[in-house]
Design brief:
The complex is a heterodimer. Chain A is an alpha/beta fold. Chain A has eight helices and ten strands. In chain A, a hairpin with a 2-residue loop joins strand 9 and strand 10. The radius of gyration of chain A is 18 Å and the shape is globular. By secondary structure, chain B is of the alpha+beta class. Chain B folds into three domains: 244 residues, no CATH class; 270 residues, no CATH class; 142 residues, no CATH class. Chain B has a six-stranded mixed barrel. Chain B has a two-stranded antiparallel sheet with strand order 2-11. In chain B, helix 3 packs antiparallel against helix 19, helix 3 runs antiparallel to helix 24 and helix 21 runs antiparallel to helix 24. The chains are: A alpha/beta, B alpha+beta. At the A-B interface, helix 2, helix 3, helix 4 and helix 5 of A face helix 1, helix 2, helix 20 and helix 26 of B.
């Protein structure tokens, strides 16, 4: 007998992918990057997908993070089939329930650290409501920045920060709206080992103390060891059961 | 420049429409996500990259500037030509050509009975030759073709603007009191002093003639002092308006969120660019510049009067105090800020300091008034070859009622010649008329043209009634001219039915139909110019589209980031659309202000260009207008501005579509 939907949603997997296939077309030639990937992510889990360059890690992350549409297969996010829902729903999920951290930070160069951190709030707030909401969002953003050790850097532009600081700013932007899942694409790939370790500590702390679900892809086994579970991806297939 | 802004009834509707559109835009802006406004403003005004939107705005500004300026001048030509043509002729012309219309007074009386007709006067019009002997002993006489026009001056003055175009006996709407000085019915009468002088010199007193200025004068170069009003206060006012507008934009920018660490340098540059004319105003105005120099400056320093009324003094010193307070407060604020040590050394800080000082100085100078002053410039002046009271001789070949030339014994065409006394000159500003018209009394012209009545000479030679070439008609409401033309045609058919011997080839037309050839040419030139500028304008659209596309391409990573954060495709696309709209708005505003200023100061600018380049950009001998004609149409200004705004917004669809369809993963994987 099936459990009530509410309990399923609370205790069941936050994210499920089944039979994910992704093709890219290079002119007339089809390139199958993912070949039927299925996995499940539990709420509060720190999952790492490990694989060499070109194995399809980033593509998998983009599909799980609802940034791209799979050629085949489905992604169920919090009990909802994401690609059966309208695009507007996926946009809203990315804005409210999902956070992204990228290898190259992807901060907006014209905005300060604070401005970058406020971006998700700016995306969902109409201009009319902004003057009233702005102070609350600003307070929250400054709180997150302070937690990540960037309190003094709030008014600086990304170009004035070190690599580690930029990645922390990107994490702040990904966390400020209290997402349910954080997707990290090689978050330490562009950093030296000491700074990389520092970023990993931050992610681990967020997962263990804050209960945040983290899905990270990396090619670095040492980094992957810090996750609760590691999945190996090679040539678009998972080597162990999900 | 004729201002018809307020007079145009559609203006209220247009303003209401524009207000509704503006309200709609404000509502749209307020209900869409704030990130678009923040990012859009960042793209527009952040750092030196802001040069891109400024460059993008230039085509739009240039388009608006050229379309309004060139069209205003072309429309000025068309408008002035129409006005002068209409003023020289009449609302309606009943034309019987050279063979003439008999019983013209009877028919004119019949026309006057038609409802809406104010005046109807017969006119003689025939080709002639005029001989002018300049009043210089060694100069030979000139013989030129002319149009001999016989008028009843009292009636002719009521039909058109004839008396406004006279140089000696001019009566304008501004000086109606002169009508008593120069009664219309005596315009062709030789003044008593001239008549007396001629009698004393043993010369006969001839009938009076009013001759086109171009026939009895010759152009000479003369240095003329022209009054030019370049008021420092006006320049300063414009500068301050600009500074205030930028200040308001800056307040909005700040209110939107202080998410940029750097000062928008392009904004500062624009601010100080506006301060520059204010400094120029100071240089123009400040007598102090001359006083500061050890020796007399090599350039003329105009004399100044200081503010003399208490209001001006309060305004000036109040402004100085307010600006000084703002400046000092800003300096204290900066000093207390965490980067105070670097402020004065940074270019932005230095610009603040210098800009503040310049603004202060400029405001102080507003109390100095730089009034109209004289500028010497080369002018073309028309000198009379024959003085008033001098003689001209007009010769013409009379034409019979059948249209045949009068032939004398031996088969030689008969030539009627008459010496006339120059009593006035005619200058409408329209070369066609001014270089050909010779006005004489109706009866004199009638006799010269052989159109005077002749009694019967025998049973085989019946009496010939006197004839007139035209009947010129003034109507009360020019808008009803076409309907009255039909009524006059009906009246003519009835008149001929009653008097079969009055039969003549008569055409009844409005002045526009009569002059359609020349008016058509001017209109066609105007339309061709508008068309060519319109084509250029499409080129501007392509340029804006390209800039917008390149902008969206350069910013594709930002597009990816925004979409990863949940921004919708339409939202990100509309960011670039808004960017295009603001670029268009900046360009349109700059072009509109520039063209209006240029049109307003066209004459001083022309004088300045003439002096700098040692040329005459608008030779009076060619165009025969005193000033470069211009006619500003509110409809055209509003239409061009809206069109450029719409075009730049539409053109930026190129960038908007690119941003909207761009997949976030495409841009985020390309590093």
């Amino acid at each position: 007998m099936s459990e009530p939907l509410e309990k399923q949603t609370r205790d069941g997997p936050i994210l499920e992918a089944s039979g994910l296939v992704k093709d890219y077309w290079m002119g007339p030639q089809r390139l199958r990057v993912l070949q039927g990937v299925s996995l499940s992510v539990r709420r509060g889990e720190f999952l790492c997908v490990l694989g060499p360059s070109g194995s399809g890690k980033s593509t998998l992350l983009h599909l799980l993070g609802l940034l791209d549409r799979p050629t085949e297969g489905r992604v169920v996010f919090e009990g909802q089939d994401a690609f059966d829902r309208p695009k507007r729903w996926r946009d809203r999920m990315r804005n409210e329930a999902i956070g992204f951290v990228f290898q190259f930070y992807y901060l907006m160069p014209d905005l300060t650290v604070l401005g970058n951190t406020l971006l998700p709030a700016m995306v969902r707030t109409p201009a009319l409501a902004w003057p009233l909401a702005r102070h609350r969002y600003r307070r929250e953003a400054l709180g997150v920045l302070k937690d990540l050790g960037l309190g003094e850097r709030a008014q600086h532009l990304p170009k004035e920060l070190s690599g580690g600081e930029r990645q922390r700013a990107a994490i702040a932007r990904a966390l400020v709206h209290r997402p349910r899942v954080l997707f990290a694409d090689e978050p330490t790939g562009n950093l030296d080992s000491a700074t990389g370790a520092e970023i990993m500590k931050v992610l681990a702390r967020l997962n263990r103390k804050g209960g945040l679900t983290v899905v990270m892809v990396t090619h670095d086994e040492r980094i992957a060891r810090q996750a609760d579970r590691v999945l190996h991806l090679q040539d678009g297939r998972l080597l162990h059961g999900a | 420049m004729e201002q018809t802004w307020i007079a145009e009834p559609w203006l209220i509707a247009a303003l209401a429409g524009a207000g509704l559109v503006a309200l709609g835009l404000v509502a749209l802006v307020l209900t869409t996500s704030v990130y678009k406004h923040v990012i859009c403003l960042k793209y527009l005004f952040s750092g030196w990259k802001a040069v891109v939107p400024l460059v993008s705005a230039m085509p739009a500004a240039l388009g608006v500037f050229l379309l309004i300026l060139v069209f205003a001048i072309m429309d000025g030509f068309a408008h002035d030509t129409r006005e002068v043509t209409r003023g020289t002729l009449a609302d309606i012309i009943v034309d019987a050509h050279f063979e003439g219309l008999p019983y013209y007074d009877d028919f004119a009386a019949r026309i006057k009975e038609i409802d809406g007709v104010e005046v109807a006067t017969p006119v003689i019009q025939t080709f002639a030759m005029v001989r002018v002997k300049p009043a210089f002993p060694a100069v030979r006489a000139t013989v030129q073709p002319c149009m001999l026009i016989g008028i009843r001056p009292g009636e002719k003055a009521l039909v058109g603007r004839f008396q406004q175009y006279l140089e000696q006996q001019q009566v304008t709407e501004k000086e109606p009191w002169k009508a008593a000085l120069y009664p219309a019915d005596r315009l062709l009468t030789v003044p008593p002093d001239i008549a007396e002088a001629r009698r004393e010199a043993g010369l006969p007193v001839r009938p009076g003639a009013i001759v086109g200025k171009g026939l009895v004068s010759y152009p000479v170069r003369a240095i003329e002092s022209q009054e030019v009003d370049v008021s420092a206060v006006v320049i300063l006012a414009w500068s301050l308006v600009g500074v205030l507008a930028l200040g308001a934009a800056a307040v909005g920018y700040r209110a939107m969120g202080r998410y940029g660490h750097t000062t928008p340098a392009a904004w500062l540059a624009a601010l100080y660019l506006l301060v520059a004319p204010a400094i120029g105003a100071v240089l123009l105005a400040a007598h102090g510049v001359g006083l500061l120099l050890p020796a007399a400056p090599p350039f003329p320093v105009p004399e100044l009067t200081r503010a003399d009324s208490s209001g001006e003094i309060w305004l000036t010193w109040g402004g100085v105090a307010a600006l000084a307070a703002v400046w000092i407060a800003a300096a204290i604020f900066v000093f207390l800020s965490r980067e105070r040590r670097f402020f004065w050394l940074r270019p932005v800080g230095l610009m603040h300091f210098l800009g503040g000082a310049a603004a202060l100085l400029a405001f102080w100078s507003s109390g100095l008034r730089y009034g109209p002053h004289l500028v010497e410039q080369d002018q073309v002046e028309d000198k009379l070859a024959v003085p008033y009271g001098g003689e001209i001789v007009v010769s013409t070949i009379p034409i019979s009622a059948s249209g045949a030339l009068r032939i004398e014994a031996g088969g030689v065409p008969k030539v009627n010649t008459r010496a006339l006394t120059l009593v006035d000159t005619f200058k409408s500003g329209f070369w066609e008329s001014d270089a050909s018209h010779v006005y004489v009394d109706f009866s004199v012209a009638q006799a010269l043209a052989g159109m005077d009545g002749r009694p019967a000479a025998g049973p085989d030679d019946p009496a010939a009634p006197a004839r007139a070439s035209q009947i010129q008609v003034k109507v009360r409401d020019p808008a009803r001219s076409a309907a009255i033309v039909e009524r006059i045609r009906d009246a003519w058919r009835q008149f001929v039915g009653e008097r079969p011997d009055a039969s003549a080839m008569v055409s009844v037309n409005t002045w526009e139909t009569q002059q359609k050839t020349i008016l058509g040419v001017v209109e066609m030139e105007k339309n061709i110019t508008a068309l060519m500028l319109g084509m250029m304008f499409l080129g501007f659209g392509v340029l804006i589209a390209l800039i917008s596309y390149v902008m969206a391409y350069i910013k594709s990573r930002d597009v990816g980031i925004l979409k990863a954060l949940g921004a919708r495709d339409v939202g990100v696309g509309s960011l670039f659309l808004g960017y295009g709209f603001i670029v268009g708005l900046l360009g349109t505003a700059a072009g509109l202000v520039g063209s209006l200023l240029m049109i307003h100061y066209l004459d001083p600018i022309e004088i300045w260009v003439n002096q700098i380049l040692h040329t005459d950009v608008f030779p009076r001998t060619t165009y025969y207008f005193e000033h470069i004609p211009r006619h500003l149409s509110a409809a055209w200004c509003v239409g061009v501005s809206l069109a450029v705004l719409a075009l730049s917004t539409l053109a930026s669809l190129a960038g908007g579509l690119l941003a909207a369809i761009k997949q976030p993963v495409e841009t985020l994987r390309n590093e």
